[in-house]
Amino acid sequence: MTATPLMTVEDLSISFRIEDRWCRAVNGVSFDIMPDETLCLVGESGCGKSITAMSLMRLLPGSARLGGRIGFDGKDILTMPEAELQTIRGRRIAMIFQEPMTSLNPVLTVGEQIAEPLVLHKGMGWAEAKREARHLLDLVRIPDADRRLRQYPYELSGGMRQRVMIAIGLACRPEILIADEPTTALDVTIQAQVLALLDEIRREQGLSIVLITHDLGVVANVADRVAVMYAGDLVETAPAGELFDKPSHPYTQALLRTVPRADAAFDLHPIEGQVPSIQSMPEGCRFAPRCGEAHAACSSPPNLSSGPHAVRCWARRDVA
Amino acid sequence: MSNLLTVENLGKTFTSRRFLSLRRDYEVTALRDVSFTVAKGETVGVVGESGCGKSTLARCVLDLITPTTGAVRFDGTDLTTLASAEKRAMRGRIQMVFQDPYSSLNSKRSIGRTLAEPLYVHKGIRYRDALPRVREVLGEVGMPASAVDKYPHEFSGGQRQRIAIARALILEPDLIIADEAVSALDVSVQAQVLLLMRRIQQERGLSYLFITHDLGVLRNFCDRVLVMYLGRVVESGPVGDLLERPRHPYTRSLRDAAPVPDVSKRQALALLEGEIPSPANPPSGCPFHPRCPRATAICSQEAPVLAATQDEGRRVACHNPE
Ligand SMILES: Nc1ncnc2c1ncn2[C@@H]1O[C@H](COP(=O)(O)OP(=O)(O)OP(=O)(O)O)[C@@H](O)[C@H]1O
Ligand SMILES: Nc1ncnc2c1ncn2[C@@H]1O[C@H](COP(=O)(O)OP(=O)(O)O)[C@@H](O)[C@H]1O
Ligand code: SF4
Ligand code: SF4
Ligand SMILES: [Mg+2]
Ligand SMILES: [Mg+2]
Predict the structure, then answer these.
(1) I want to staple A163 with a disulfide (CB 3.0 to 4.6 A). Which of A49, A140, B229, B302 is the partner?
(2) Residues A43 and A252: beta-carbon distance below 8 Å
(3) Do A244 and B257 count as a contact with CB atoms less than 8 A apart?
(4) Measured from the CB, is residue B288 less than 6 Å from ligand 4?
(5) B54 inside domain
């Protein structure tokens, strides 16, 4: 199957100005987002997943400098005028976050919050927007929608709030939904419900989902493709089955070994040390200080191999 | 094996006044008839969905809140009947580590002062005399002695959690209650902290009451487990056996909802319908019946009691166990 990507991220770099110095947080990352797929971005905290995701909508603070190209619909998101970006952001590409309580407005009812983007972006009247809001609550399987529309966020449970966030994200029928740790704050039972919901909606609506998570269990359950990030580098990318069957990058392998599994008793194998800060990135391979296979060649940065299963490591030049 | 902690029929009901309202005060029963033991050197896990009463249980054992019914016996002494001076002495032997290493450490106080404080409060030891012990305990959790003069913001989440563990260790407690102590950490740091806690346990022979919602952590860190639902223990037993052969339908639901990093085991995660009901308005009979796939007529009428099964060390509260 060779479909055309919906979005093409090429050599994306993100730097922040810290104490008069530009520090590279994301270091030349490339990937495609295919139609109807779930792409998972994984890695430890601080590896650059969230800022990579934000940059897909050019939603980064003014202190950030972006490089590379993000191709969407024949245009480059990174260089298009702000006015044109407004026609895409929240409409054709939408985003939901980990903490529904902080991203929902506490003084607006659920109905008002869902209707608002419809009025703003789609030019609907309030009455029509309210009807559509009701429909969206059905879509995210919130029972008793009429009553819920009149409630405030504090009256809802965490799982309900996350469903409302998803409804708001879907309001304008986006082509890409970016979900940054959408289930991290939820109980496993509610997490399973929300993941199933996202997957159903993806299939029904023909949506691409970029799911950011540090939970490899979640990834194994929902991803079509996976991109593993370490310290601002994309270190391995592969179809999900391939990645879990034949994890290849030493970081991916180490990360998989650290996960305590509910279905088996294993020894715990931490990765010693920690993700470097963006102010003190190692020269050469950024994983080298924590890598058991580091050798002389690793003092210069490896590049990403080509092909559907790509790896950035000097010791893995032979992975197809 | 002697029991370090014995909890008997513990119950806690919170009563809230409704001001300016004609409706009566409302009551939330956060714990109901909870009984269990923790042996010396043992790690007992507590799992369940948010709001099921795990933290309330921890706070009762720590004597931070007064239970409505029941008894907490620590090393043979009933904590609920002790005079306050004796309580304080006992309290040093039970310590707590919380989820959030950001808010549980005082940001304006140096690490050295934070660690020395319990020594002053419980033993009247002054800062300068406490320092050798502070440095020693920092070493024990894998932190450099130079951390003494630093402040919490200078450390990562994992390091702050190590410091919180050091603070819990400084009085050489017999029991540490860990409430989601590794939940906010990345997997690799989580594994580092868990191994640290296990090593300390082996060296000191202390016990953990380990609250978590992560079944992977539970499986790989705990010896026994209590599964809680709406303030009650619905199943308990050795962790491996219980997760492999759950007998309570809720335990099965929890286990089947936990994703494992293995694509070959990919199937729709089994879905438990609905959410945990409000403890202010619990269902009749078995509290799990509105969500239970095995429920029968009796389940909405009569609450099942937690009873021993033929399996060694396993208890279950269900009319139709698997
Ligand atoms: N001081 C209080 N006053 C009234 N209700 C309370 C109080 N403390 C706890 N509760 C209620 O008791 C129940 C159990 O709360 P608890 O904090 O023990 O849950 P938990 O299992 O620790 O949940 P989580 O996983 O979210 O930490 C909840 O319904 C909670 O709202
Ligand atoms: N506004 C900012 N200013 C400076 N550094 C930032 C900013 N936002 C993020 N960073 C840094 O960029 C790196 C990647 O952050 P992030 O994308 O949030 O990681 P992740 O989502 O993988 O946990 C981190 O080192 C973080 O501290
Ligand atoms: S390039 Fe070298 S240091 Fe980097 S991951 Fe590969 S073997 Fe390890
Ligand atoms: S007692 Fe009935 S409702 Fe409760 S868990 Fe057992 S079968 Fe389900
Ligand atoms: Mg993030
Ligand atoms: Mg709690």
Answers:
(1) A140
(2) no
(3) no
(4) yes
(5) yes
Q: Is residue B17 part of a domain?
A: yes
Q: How far is the CA of A51 from the centre of ligand 5 (A)?
A: 7
Cβ < 6 A, ligand 2 pocket: A 16, 25, 43, 45-51, 61, 63, 277-278
Q: Which amino acid is it at B69? A: T
Reading the block at residue A267, the tokens are 């020894």
Contact between B240 and A261 using a beta-carbon 8 Å cutoff: no
Domain tally for chain B? Answer: 1
Strand order in the sheet with B224-229: B94-97, B175-179, B207-211, B43-47, B224-229, B232-238, B315-316, B307-308
Asked if residues B6 and B26 have their Cβ atoms less than 8 Å apart, the reply is no
Q: How far apart are CA B178 and CA B209, in angstroms?
A: 6
The encoded tokens of residue B2 equal 């002697």
Express each pLDDT in A48-97 by its tens digit: 999 999 999 999 888 899 999 999 999 999 999 999 999 999 889 999 88
Alpha-carbon span A310 to A319, nearest angstrom: 7
| A305: number of Cβ within 10 Å | 18
Instruction: Please spell the DSSP secondary structure of B171-193, one letter per residue.
Output: T--SEEEEESTTTTS-HHHHHHH
Which ipTM was obtained for this model? 0.85
pLDDT tens-digit readout, A6-57: 999 999 999 999 888 999 999 999 999 999 999 999 999 889 999 999 999 9
- In CATH, what number is assigned to the domain containing residue B11? 3.40.50.300
Cβ–Cβ gap A217/B258 under 8 Å: yes
- CB proximity list for A65: less than 8 A, separation 6 or greater: A14, A15, A16, A17, A22
* Backbone angle region of A185, left / alpha / beta, with phi > 0 → left and psi within -120 to 50 → alpha: alpha
B148: in domain: no
Enumerate the H helices of chain A as residue ranges: 49-55, 82-86, 100-103, 110-122, 126-139, 145-149, 158-170, 188-205, 216-222, 240-245, 250-258
The parent domain of residue B293 ranges over 3-40+48-82+211-316
- Nearest CA of chain B to the CA of A19: how many Å? 17
| Domains parsed from chain A with CATH numbers | 7-92+172-316 (3.40.50.300), 101-171 (no CATH)
Residue B24: what residue type?
R
pLDDT tens digits for B86-102?
Answer: 777 777 899 998 877 66
Tell me the best of B232, B272, B302, B318 to mutate to test the pocket of ligand 4, counting ligand atoms within 8 Å of each CB and taking the most.
B318
